[in-house]
Design brief:
The protein has 7 helices and no strands. The chain has 158 residues and is mostly helical. It has one domain. Helix 1 packs antiparallel against helix 2 and helix 2 packs parallel to helix 4.
Length: 158
C-alpha cells in the first residue's frame, strides 16, 4: 500500500508537471500557479506532514524546472507554506470564497516577491500582466480545494 506522504508528493509532482506543461502563447500569462495552490492546500489540511522543508525542496525543484534564479521560488513557497501552516486552524474555518481571497493575497505576494528577487539579482522588468495568475488562482481555489479534499478523503490520506 502506498503511504499517505507518497500520495501527497504525487499531487505536488502533478502540480509541477502542470507548471511546465506547454500552453498556447496567448494563454501563457494566465497560467495558474498549481504548485502554490497544491502546497497551500496541503499546508492547511495537513501541516504535520507538509511543512516549510517540503515547500523549500519543491521550490528548488521548480527553480530548476523553470530555469529561474536558484532559491527564489524556494524562499517564497517556504514563506507561503509557513503562513498557511501557522494559520491553518483559522483558514480552515473560513468559507471557500474567503479562503480564495487569502489564496489571492498569497499569490500576489508570491508574484511580487519573485519579481523583486529576480529584479534585484537580474535585469527583470515589471509588467502588469505579471499579476494575471493572481486572479486566476483566486478563481480556481474553490475547485482545487474541493478536488484535493476529495482526493484526500477517497484515498484516506491522514
Amino acid at each position: 500500500m502506498i503511504g499517505s506522504r507518497s500520495l501527497i508528493y504525487c499531487s505536488i509532482l502533478l502540480a509541477m508537471v502542470l507548471a511546465i506543461a506547454p500552453m498556447p502563447a496567448i494563454t501563457e500569462a494566465f497560467r495558474p500557479d498549481w504548485v502554490l495552490i497544491v502546497l497551500f492546500y496541503w499546508s492547511i489540511a495537513m501541516p504535520h506532514k507538509i511543512n516549510v522543508g517540503t515547500a523549500w525542496v519543491t521550490g528548488l525543484l521548480l527553480d530548476v524546472l523553470l530555469g529561474s534564479v536558484l532559491g527564489v521560488h524556494a524562499l517564497v513557497l517556504a514563506f507561503v507554506s509557513y503562513v498557511a501552516a501557522v494559520n491553518h486552524l483559522t483558514i480552515r474555518n473560513f468559507s471557500l470564497w474567503q479562503q480564495a481571497l487569502i489564496v489571492g493575497l498569497m499569490s500576489a505576494f508570491y508574484h511580487l516577491a519573485i519579481y523583486w528577487a529576480q529584479h534585484f539579482l537580474t535585469t527583470a522588468e515589471f509588467f502588469p500582466g505579471l499579476m494575471w495568475p493572481t486572479l486566476i488562482n483566486t478563481l480556481i481555489w474553490p475547485w482545487a480545494f474541493l478536488m484535493l479534499r476529495k482526493y484526500r478523503r477517497k484515498l484516506r490520506i491522514r
